[in-house]
Every structure is written in C-alpha cells, then in structure tokens.
Amino acid sequence: MGWQVTSYVYGGHQLAPATLEDYRRVATALDDAGGRLIAHGIAWRQAAMDLARDRASVPLCPVLSGSGAGAGAGLGAGSGTVTTSFPASNAITGCIAAPYGTRAGGTAGSAGTGGAAATAGQMTVMHGSLPYERLIALCGENARNCDADGFQLRRMAELLVRAHSLYSEAEWKAREAFNEVGQAVTKSAPGYTSLGMLGLILGGLGASWIAEGKPKPAAASQMTAPLQEAYLSGIGALISGTTYIKGIFSKDEVNQAAGSISKYSGPVKDLAQGNTLTVRRVRSTVDMVGPSTSVAESLENLRRLGEEKYKLGSGLRYATIAVQRYEREDGTNAWLVTIPGTDGHADSPFGWEQNVELMSDDAEQRKRADSARMVVEAMRKAGIRSDEPVALIGHSQGGIVAAQIAADQSDAYNICHVVTAGSPVANHPIPEKTWVTSIEIEDELVAALDGAQNPETEHWLTIRGTVTPTPPQVVEDGVIIPPSNPYAASPVTNALESQELSHWLKYHQAAYQNASDLGSQAVDKHERHFAGVISGNLRETLYYEGRMSR
Questions:
Q1: Strand-pair category, 490-491 with 276-282
Q2: Can you give the pLDDT at residue 246?
Q3: Could you report the per-residue pLDDT of 383-407, keeping only the tens digit for each?
Q4: Which of 158, 162, 319, 357 has the maximum number of C-beta atoms within 10 A of its C-beta?
Q5: What is d(CA 479, CA 474) in angstroms, rounded to the nearest whole number?
C-alpha cells in the first residue's frame, strides 16, 4: 500500500463575480447530469432484478412439470385436444394460452379412437419464453454504462470546482469561524478541551497500535487535524492574555504567546547554546542544489539539501543553506535562496529553540532568531544587492525564516517571491509586493502551529493537501488499468507502506504536483511569477554553514 495526496487551492487568483458564477453554473450542470445518469443506472439495475424475480416466479406449465406429457397424450388420443410446445433454452418458460382452430381440433379428434371432435374456439396451451438471460445482461450493461458516464461527469464537476477554487472563499470563512468558536471554547474550558484532545491522541495511537502493531504519531496527528488550529489559537490566547473581543479582530494569538515566551526562552537558549553566530562558506562534493526553472524543481532541490546531504556524501554538515545567482539576459542578477528546516544539532542556529523567536509577533524578536540571522548574513556574504530580485524557498523552520525575511527585511532586500512548505506563517506581516506560495498538509500539525489560516489574496496562494492510501491497482489480463480520474490525487514518492508523519517534504511535493495537474489558474500564475523572478542562467551556487558558540 502506498500513499497519495489530493490538493485544494485557496487564494492566488481572484475571478470576477460573473465568471465565477458561470463556472459554478457549469459545475452544477455537470454534477446534476451525472446524478441523473447514476439514477438511470439504478433504474436499469432494478429492471434486471425485476426480470430475475419474474423468471423465478412463473408457475411451471403442466407439460414442463412432467404431468403435462401424459395429460397431453391422453387428450390428444382421447379428447382430440392438440398441445404444441416451444422449448426455450435454459430459461423457465411461461405458459401462453391461445385458441386453437376447429379444423385442427376435429382432425385431431378423428384421429383418436372414440374421441369427440373439438368444439370451435377451444383453448389449447402453447409454450413460449422471453430471453431472460439476454435481457438481464443488457440491463446490467446499461446500468454499468450509466454509472461510468455519471461518475465521469461528476468527476469533471469536481475537477472544475477544485481547479478554479469555486467554493474556496466560503470554505475558508467557515474554517475561520470554526477556529474562532474553538478558540473561545478552549479558552473558557482549557482543561476539558485538553482532555478531549488527549483522548483523540490516545485513540489514534491505540488504533494504529491495533492495526500495525505499534503506536504511530501520524495517526494521532490525523485524529486531531480538524481541531489543531482552533485548539492552538485558544492556548495562545490563554498564554498571551488575549481577551475574547480582541481575539475576534486578531488572528495572531499564537504569535503573541510566542512573543511572551521568547522573552524568557531566548536568554535561556543563549546560556545553553551561546549567542555568537559564525557563518562561513562551505563546498559540496555533490551538486546538491541544481538549476531550477520552477517551484517543483526548487522543492526537489530543497528536499535533497535537507534530507540527502549526508546520504550522498556531500561533505555538508549542520545547518546549510544554498544561495544561487542567476544571470539575466540584460546582465543583471537574480537570486534563489534555499533554506531547509530544523536540523537538531546542539550548536545549530536551526535548532528547536529558534522556532519560538521566529514565531513572535515582535519584529525585533524575530530578527534576533539565530536561523534568521544566519540566512541574512549568508545573503550579505553572497553579495545580494538591495535592488536585485530574490526568491526564497524553505521547509518547516526554513519557511518561517523565509517569511520573516520577507516581512522584516523588505527595506534591505527585494524579496519578490516566497515558497513555504509545512510552515506556520499565516501571521507574518509579509508585504503585498511579495508573492507567497504556501503548501500545507491537512494533518501535519507543524503548519497549524500558527493557529490561523493564511491570507487568501491575489498574491498569497495556499495549497492544502489531504493524504489517503493509494487504491490497489486494477490488473486485467496482465495489464495495469490506469485510474479513471488521473487528477484525483498524486502519489507520494518513496512513501513507507505504513502511515508516517506527513511533514516530510515528499508529501508537499505530491500536493504541489496534484495542484499543478488540476490546471489551476492560480497555481499557473504563481508558477510563472516564480520562474520570472529567477529567469536567467545559473552562474554559481554558494553553500553557507552556520554554527553557534559562546
């Protein structure tokens, strides 16, 4: 069993109301037509059942029951009655009574010894049969055809809805309202809501233990996914002391809480890890980050730098980012900065502790986060000028750093496009001039740590993916039959057979692939903008490593 991701697109492209209504009308018509065909399929299937029932319920004729043969012979010999039989393949035949002519009856009667001639209009029994097997088969075939066409039309309607985000605004607002209610409930009864979340976590762990022989954190995250943002925003409101009225007009309760916590966690981190940051250029023996012309290629480079630098023997260690310079046709430079997530080393600026400062609602606290300082210093060392276009792409903590730089370094650098994967960045004040492409998985938890949803604007696109098991392959005569709807989901490359945490970058890659396959105008627009920022020929790839010391 593998895993696949189905994506839904929010923001990134605003349709005119008239155009939106036209798309909705077409989608509704397709869905209605599909429903009618499916209903016809049900009717055909019912007809097949009725025919089968009728065939089984027809009383057997005397001739076919066995007693009819003797009776027919006696009547034919004695009374002059003639019986004619028409056998019917394998079907049970029905009796058909029909008048038999006087002449035939008289002839038959004269043939019998002492028999009386049949009277005019005398009834005789004839045997015929409907082709039940053929009719039932035709009904079944029609039912299957109606089902296939009906479901295909409904899949087309779903594709139209997903590709053009026809109901995204309503879904987004409904989710926001749910989060606000959940926040209020959590703040008013934190003990009960926490116990409820704990119960869901234990339920997920227990179910995975029964199913796979050991508890899976991924199952617990999946169980709590619908409530994560609401619960975290409620806890954030408790920590930060946000009032209910204020909470209605603000969505950054988690960031306010992070700001309060980092006042204490920052100095503790400095005592344990030190606050002296050293950023130096390092060299890789392998081309970990190659040239890129698209978001998909940049995501693959990000995955390689974050997950495979040790496997491939690149010589890169600790927190390492890549800064690439692209030369345009006019001789100017464009830059792409690739930022992996938390690496967990004790002296790394990309440790767990830095996440709290990065999530603060205070810009100065965000700037002091070691991981943000490291990337800015690497950009300075690489020679990025303030007027040169820059694109940033990051996973997890790397995405938060990218959002922080776009929000807090907009005067120092021309940040044109930010791509985040699995990063809680909804409340970072990124200026409108910067385009944002965010990829999140429904049950990964990390992306929900901001306790809010991303802005849904022309320049901020959010792709949300849902992970499901891949259906088994259909094989006929040794040939693999492709799925009827290739746009339903995209497979996760190198996914484990068992359920795993969906925060791995390969799940975000699958989500982006599925969103691209939909033909979404919003995705295409952001893709073209990203490619335009880094258009040109790759001239150099610089790797920078950061270390913390006292």
A1: unpaired
A2: 59
A3: 999 999 999 999 999 999 999 999 9
A4: 319
A5: 8
Q: What pLDDT is attached to residue 243?
A: 67
Do the Cβ atoms of 417 and 528 come closer than 8 Å? no
Residue 453 CA to residue 270 CA, distance in Å, equals 32
What are the φ/ψ torsions at residue 251 (nearest 5 degrees)?
-120, 10
CA distance 366 to 370: 9
Per-residue DSSP letter, 447: G
- Side by side, the strands of the sheet bearing 490-491 are 276-282, 537-549, 319-327, 333-339, 389-395, 414-421, 435-441, 460-469, 3-11, 490-491
Measured distance CA(83)–CA(85) in Å, rounded: 7
Question: Domain-by-domain residue ranges, the chain?
Answer: 59-92+94-128, 170-460+537-549
CA Rg value for the chain: 36
What pLDDT, on the 0 to 100 scale, is given for residue 74? 40
CA–CA gap between residue 502 and residue 24 (Å, rounded): 32
Strand partners, 436: 418, 460
- What's the pLDDT score for residue 245? 57
Query: Sign of the CA dihedral 513, 518, 522, 525?
Result: positive
**Residues forming beta bridges with residue 465, ordered by sequence position:** 7, 441
Q: Which residues of the chain have pLDDT under 70?
A: 58-129, 243-250, 476-477, 481-482
- Token pair for 224: 């709590």
Burial letters 371-386, b for 16+ CB under 10 A, else e: bbbbbbbbbeebebee
Cα–Cα distance, 527 to 296 (Å, whole number): 9
User: 283 in helix, strand or coil?
Assistant: coil
Query: In angstroms, rounded to a whole number, what is the distance separating the alpha carbons of residues 217 and 102?
Result: 89
Residues 317/347, Cβ–Cβ less than 8 Å: no
Closest listed residue to residue 543, CA positions, set 309, 298, 332: 309
Contacts of 431 (CB under 8 A, 6+ apart): 406, 407, 410
Listed as own residue / partner, the contacts of 304-308 with beta carbons closer than 8 Å and 24 or more positions apart are: 305/338, 305/340, 306/340, 306/341, 306/395, 306/398, 306/505, 307/505
List, in order, residues 6 or more apart from 449 with CB less than 8 Å away: 232, 254, 359, 424
- Cβ pair 136, 51 in contact under 8 A: yes
Q: Are 531 and 293 in contact (CB under 8 A)?
A: yes
Q: Please, which residues bridge with residue 460 across strands?
A: 436, 457
Best CA proximity match to 169, nearest among 23, 15, 5, 25: 15
DSSP states of 87-134 as a string? Answer: --TTSPPEEEEEE--HHHHHHHHHHSTTPPPPPTT-EEEEEE---HHH
